[in-house]
Write a structure and sequence with these properties.
The protein is built from ten helices and 19 strands. With 387 residues, the protein is of the alpha+beta class.
């Protein structure tokens, strides 16, 4: 087996050069932890719509290390079960587990502000690589990692053991945290959640930090960093864009079937004040999720080639259907909630405020509600009450 130490040092240097890797302890971890050990049995490489399986066994060792230490996210599972060793030719499928790009992994750990002696809860073990980086510094006994997929968890646990980290590896629903090892100083989620579960807040010490991607769209999601207070609440802000697979228990079911039938009975029709194509941009998409939780953007094409846009909220049985007329758009809305009215109001207020970046968004979490707002703009405030 080729020695990957030069590749590890090269990766660490590149991460430092790009301003991602700053902490000496984390650089030491990146240089010490062999990422390739966490990619067995192999990965899928994107080849323009199909996934090319590449396994550690049967691949030139130097080529395998080149792949393992690339700057990219490497897909390790498709459709909740398929691994690279089970495919002998390019396949199609939906990624359900991956080794996230090292820049994202390291950047998130840097944002977590870990210190010696901290106890950390990780939601979403994945390959186990990020857990290994934290174990290298904190010690395996101070890291608890939870993975919902038993097969993914087993592979990660084997990899962690192989490199010398007998950490607390738990198979289960990470949305519940892991009470037996609470209280934690830090909680980090490597999946996206619709909102930060209060179970994570309750299992975090006062002064502790919870870091998680929030949102349910494949884009338009933000990395939330909140600090827990003495009363079991948490407050913080969105510190940047972030994109992760949705927590398995919250995976969105795509809207399918006859869309014209779903939108046949509209309660109103009017011209839009802002174009719905704004929702294809990151910050407007994030705002749409605040203004209309549960809503999703759906694109379609008529048989004559006309492009259509919809916003659906299946749980509230509501829709907004858009039709383009040159540069103008009209919207038909139906159901108990006027989805586009709520979203459009948020987008218009955001534009009036000067279109601030996602990092302007703050949030406050209690056991009863989640509140998001942008400072000094009373119309840019949303409170979501928990059922």
């Amino acid at each position: 087996m080729n020695d990957s130490a030069p590749e590890r040092r090269r990766l660490a240097a590149l991460l430092a050069q790009n301003g991602v890797l700053k902490s000496p302890w984390l650089r030491a971890a990146v240089e010490a932890v062999p990422r390739e050990r966490f990619l067995h049995p192999g990965v899928f490489l994107d080849e323009g719509g199909a996934w090319q399986p590449v396994t550690a066994v049967g691949t030139d060792p130097a080529e395998w290390l080149r792949i393992a230490y690339s700057y990219d996210t490497l897909t390790t599972q498709l459709d909740g079960h398929l691994t690279a060793d089970q495919a002998s030719a390019p396949v199609r499928g939906v990624p359900t587990s991956s080794s996230t790009t090292p820049a994202t992994v390291v950047g998130m750990i840097e944002s977590l502000e870990v210190a010696a002696g901290h106890r950390v809860l990780e939601i979403g073990t994945g390959t186990g690589y990020s857990a290994a980086l934290m174990c290298h510094y904190l010690g395996a006994g101070n890291v608890t990692t939870v993975e919902v997929d038993p097969e993914v968890a087993e592979r990660a646990d084997s990899a962690l053991e192989a490199v010398g980290f007998s950490t607390w590896s738990v198979t289960g629903d990470g949305l519940l945290g892991h009470p037996p090892n609470a209280q934690y100083d830090r909680v980090i989620a490597t999946c996206a959640v619709r909102r930060i579960p209060h179970t994570w807040v309750r299992q975090t010490k006062p002064g502790g930090i919870v870091l998680s991607t929030v949102g349910s769209w494949p884009y338009g999601t933000g990395l939330a960093k909140v600090t827990v207070d003495e009363n079991g609440n948490a407050e913080g802000r969105i510190i940047g864009r972030s994109s992760f697979m949705q927590a398995r228990a919250q995976a969105v079911v795509p809207v399918a079937g006859d869309l014209s039938a779903r939108t046949a009975y509209a309660d109103s029709e009017r011209e839009t004040k802002v174009p719905p194509t704004l929702l294809e941009e990151w910050m407007p998409a994030f705002l749409a999720q605040l203004a209309a939780p549960g809503a999703h953007l759906v694109r379609a094409v008529r048989s004559d080639g006309t492009k259509l846009l919809y916003v659906f909220d299946p749980e509230r049985e509501s829709f907004a259907a858009f039709t383009a007329d040159g540069d103008d758009w009209s919207v038909r809305q139906g159901g108990p909630v006027a989805l586009w009215d709520d979203i459009e109001q948020a987008l218009h207020a955001w534009q009036e405020a000067g279109s601030p970046d996602i990092t302007a968004v703050r949030l406050h979490i209690t056991g009863r509600s989640h509140t998001y707002w942008i400072e000094d703009h009373p119309t840019l405030r949303w409170q979501h009450h928990l059922a």
